[in-house]
Amino acid sequence: MIDYERLETRCLSKKGATKEYKAEWEAALYKIGDKMFAMRGSDKSGRSIITLKADPADGAFLRERYKDIIAGYYMNKTHWNSVYLDGAVPDDLLNDMIDKSYDIILRSLPKKTQKAILEQ
Questions:
Q1: What letters, b where the CB count within 10 A reaches 16 and e where it falls short, cover 65-97?
Q2: Taking the domain 4-114, which CATH number applies?
Q3: Is the pTM of this model over 0.90?
Q4: Can you give the residue ranges of every domain in the chain?
Q5: Which residues neighbour 30 within 8 Å (Cβ) at sequence distance 6 or greater?
Q6: What are the pLDDT digits (tens) for 28-60?
């Protein structure tokens, strides 16, 4: 079972990371700059998930290997994965997925914005 406080601490420990709650989605969005790198919410049945950006090849590999990692729920199925937080995904892997999602989004920001964030 995932410790939600530890999960949030991990997301917010990233330089420049912020949290925004979207009431209409019933989801917490973790952002860098104005772009989301993680979303914690639930699927239509109420199961808790976190959705993270991934390299398409890595994402496909993880979905094949772990039944509790699925194509991005409510998101682009190629570039996003969702992880069932009550599932059997190792904490180390989830932490690595958070780190990679953050890095992908950071690299997508303008160079000036990246530099400002990294110098915080």
A1: ebebbbbbbebeeebbbbbbbebebeeeebeeb
A2: 3.90.1150.30
A3: yes
A4: 4-114
A5: 11, 12, 17, 18, 19, 36, 37, 38, 39, 40
A6: 999 999 999 999 999 999 999 999 999 999 999
